[in-house]
Structure formats: C-alpha cells, structure tokens
Amino acid sequence: MSAYYNIAVAGATGAVGQEFVRLLAEREFPLASLRLLASERSVGRKIPFRDTTIEVELLEPGSFRGCDIAFFSAGASRSRAFGPAAVEAGAVVIDNSSAFRMDPAVPLVIPEVNAGDLVDHGGIIANPNCSTIIAMTAVAPLRSLRPIRRLVISTYQAASGAGAQAMEELRQQARAVLDGDPITPEVFPHPIAFNLFSHNSPVGSDGYNEEERKMILESRKILNDPTLKITATCIRVPIFRAHAESINVEFEYPRPNLTSVRECLYHAPGVELVDDVEHNRFPMPLEATGRDDVLVGRIREDQSRENAIEMFVCGDQLLKGAALNGFQIAKALIESKHLGS
User: What is this structure's pTM?
Assistant: First the structure.
C-alpha cells in the first residue's frame, strides 16, 4: 500500500459527508486523491477543497476503482447497495450507517475503546451510532476501576442527528415561533423549535424505539459484553448540534470513589473533564460543538444505588459522533498497517 491514499466519500453533500470532506481538507492525512460521490440531484455540484474545487460524481457500483478507503455516509440502503462493490474494487469501507453494525463479521469500532477489533476487518468497518459513540467514549474507561453491571442512559439529541435538513427546519421554526407564524413540521413528526419529543424512530413491540435499541445492542458489542444490563431513553431536543446524555453507571461492589473516577476520566483518551462545581459549569452542547473530545461532568454518587454513579456527557454528533470517529478509524488502519482486508 502506498504512503498516500485515494479516498472516496459517498454521501459527500450530506451533513456528515461535509464533515468528512472538511476533516480531510484541514487535518493531516496522507491524501493522494479525493472522489466525492452522491445521488443524481447533487451530481455536478462543486465542493471547495483546500485551494481548489471538486465536482460531485454519481454514486454507482463502478465509483470505487482505484480507491483505498471509502467513507460512507449515504444511508443504510446505499451502504448495502454499494459497500460490497467498494470492497470488491479493493477499498476498505468505513460505514457511518446502521447497515453493518450488528453483523458479527464487521468490527464496530471507537478507536479509543476497541481499536484492536480493526485487526479482524474483512473490508467493512462500521461506525457506531452517534449516541453510542458519545456514551461509550465516556463509559469504557471506567471499566479499569471496576466491572460495570448496568447502564441507564437518557439522551438529549440535537437536530444534527437527523441531517442538514433537520437543522434547517429547527432554524426556520425558531424564527416562525418568535414571529408568531404557524409551523408545519416536515422533517420531524412534531415541532422541534421550543419543544422536545421521543426520538423520531420506530417503536418496537417491546416499547423501545430504534435509537434506544441501537444504543443497547451496539454498546454490548463494542464492550464485548453481551450480557451487560443497559436501558436507554432517547429524546430529540431543539439544539442545532451536539448531543447530551445523562448516564448512570452501576459497578460491581464496591463502587470506585469519585476521586478515582475523575482521575480516570481526566486521563482517558477522547475525554475532557468539565466538572466545575464551584462555578456550576458542566458539559453543555454549545461548548461541545466543534470539539473533538467528549465532555464529561456532573460526576456524583447515586444516593439511591450503593454501587452507582451519575455523570453528564456532551459530544459533537457530527464530529466524534460521526465523521471524526470514521476519520480516526482510517488513521488507525494506516498506522497499524491493517488497511488491507
């Protein structure tokens, strides 16, 4: 494999695809060439990249000839349709959709947590769900203190998780509400401005919606703990960007003391401790936006459970929750020389 790599971004005009392009433009990466791919409606669009522009091409099975790495953020159906073709053409696919996450043969990776799983990739590597990435980046380091028995997670998810059109809908609705104009939701099923509602994914017969189920199943896979007790409640909130999560962590007896928890998180890769009790300053979406690290704070003992602690977490959904995690996977593959399947 050469020292420089030919890259493709499938779904390049979407919110996460644009973040992939920005990361490749602004950060150190051994890039030889970049191909931007999207659906027919975006073909021909010119995307600024460094000191030039790149024209968007049609995403089709033959798009990946000569590519070493293909970042996919075009939805699960397109990942299933075109991902295998990219692998057949010789590319390693880093997929941001749900298409392959629970496939036993596909690694589901957060580089700070389970980079070792990259060794076994067969050409496709799955990026976890955004909420799962943010939660597990903060939770996984705590396993070094005591085994974890149970997780209770409540998420407060920004409009960015539903894409660029959802962010624009929040912007337009906020203006309309302040101007006293009527609102007609289009992207979301309910008004998002000055409102919150259960995550807009299908609810199953067990009462859990799809987003909650993703968090439960993906967390078990990433932590390699299929019996981990975990429950989640996922809520959509009127925030543009960066998800927030309240996480209750129950340990095996005895629970670690708060000093050791804070020390562990302070040194954890990908985590920034924001736990200023004196000034009542803890993780906030506004401060997490544009940041690589997951912010963690409000760390305290759960007085209702003798072995549990509480913490509050914020992370940029488009960065660490999506494109940055995929970008880090690509760099880890290159550095570990596991790029070839």
Answer: 0.95
